[in-house]
Specification:
1% of the residues lie in helices and 45% in strands. Strands 1, 21, 22, 23 and 24 form a five-stranded antiparallel β-sheet that branches. Strands 2-27-26-25 form a four-stranded antiparallel β-sheet, with no helix packed on it. It has a four-stranded antiparallel β-sheet with strand order 3-4-5-6, with no helix packed on it. A hairpin with a 5-residue loop joins strand 15 and strand 16. The longest helix is centred in the N-terminal third of the chain and has 4 residues.
Length: 337
């Protein structure tokens, strides 16, 4: 067994900066600890009794949560008063939404399937509590495939000036990107995207617009271990690849203020942690490694998003689903309130 890490630090504070700075810490300088071991935390339930599987997005202010339900509509939830809920985007016959992201407080982007055609639909939202009406303002084609696309994810950059889609099935791109101008998207392209040898299982964007890509790595006997690869903002330079020690990662997100990297591990993939995990950077015998720290056990996590001040929202469950919230202090970081 490997010796325990000599020190740990939040992953996104330790990885190389876009200009290629030092990986973990300059020689002779101490590495700050990530915080106490969080153990198994009990999250706060935001909303339950939903039909899953769910996808989640949050307005840039962190005041409004958007929940894509298994019924095909998007539920708006006030995070200041979770009992206040409304239909933000109504379900439509023949169109199945797969993923969503918040471009701004009044604009959502949804990846949808209509027959074998996949596209991104942009919606301008009515004020909370009003009828959603016909909110779609743009449709951007992604391609055509007869293969299931249940693992699709949509991630919006920290600057809200571009978005990325991953989890698309063959023959569509492994990662695709579109610029955002106001409430309009440019064309979908693989330019400025990481090129990967296998299809990613999860994708996150760091505070400096760097790419954090997870895949299932190489087979080791009967088990596979999820890998984390870190790419420059241009997508053209792979800066490092680390083994997380996790069997599989289905979603990931970075706290903009905390710098913490969060992942979701599904139940039943292998022995070991499942639910919400934090990924720390650590030094073992002078070598940089990634250390997965279990934070909260969840029955069947499907999606997560970080709020503006660092709290983590997780969708949990498939048939009967709920949305829960954890504060950064409960995950080992500093509370950002």
């Amino acid at each position: 067994a490997a010796p325990p890490p000599s020190a740990a630090t939040p992953m996104m504070r330790s990885l190389p900066l876009p200009g290629g700075a030092a990986l973990l810490a300059a020689p002779g300088r101490a590495v700050p600890a990530a915080g106490p071991e969080p153990g198994d935390r009990q999250p706060t339930v935001v909303v339950d009794g939903l039909r899953g599987p769910l996808r989640v997005a949050a307005a840039p202010t962190g005041q409004t949560l958007y929940v894509l339900r298994g019924d095909g509509d998007v539920l708006g939830v006030s995070l200041e008063d979770p009992a206040r809920r409304w239909t933000a985007v109504a379900a439509r016959p023949g169109i199945r939404p797969l993923a969503l992201g918040a471009i701004d407080s009044a604009t959502l982007a949804l990846v949808v399937r209509e027959g074998d055609a996949l596209s991104i639909r942009v919606h301008r939202l009515a004020p909370p509590g009003e009828e959603p009406g016909e909110s779609e303002v743009q449709a951007v084609p992604l391609g055509v495939t007869g293969v299931a696309a249940d693992g699709v994810r949509l991630v919006v950059s920290p600057g809200r000036d571009w978005l990325a889609v991953t989890g698309l099935p063959d023959p569509l791109p492994r990662i695709a990107r579109a610029t955002v101008t106001g409430a309009r998207l440019g064309g979908i392209s693989e330019r400025r995207c990481p090129r990967t040898s296998v299809r990613p299982s999860a994708l996150a964007i760091g505070p400096h617009a760097e790419w954090i890509v997870f895949d299932e790595g190489e087979a080791e006997g009967a088990q596979r271990s999820a890998r984390l690869s870190w790419f420059s903002p241009s997508g053209g330079q792979r800066l490092l690849t680390l083994d997380t020690g996790l069997p599989r990662v289905v979603d990931a997100a970075v706290g903009r203020e905390s710098g913490l990297l969060w992942t979701l591990v599904p139940r039943g993939s292998a022995d070991g942690p499942h639910g919400l995990c934090r990924i720390d950077a650590a030094l073992v015998d002078g070598r940089q490694v990634a250390r997965a720290v279990p934070v909260a056990s969840l029955a069947d996590p499907t999606a997560l998003v970080c709020l503006a001040r660092g709290d983590v929202i997780v969708a949990d469950g498939t048939e009967a689903a709920r949305v829960v919230r954890l504060a950064p202090a409960e995950g080992g970081g500093e509370k950002q309130r």
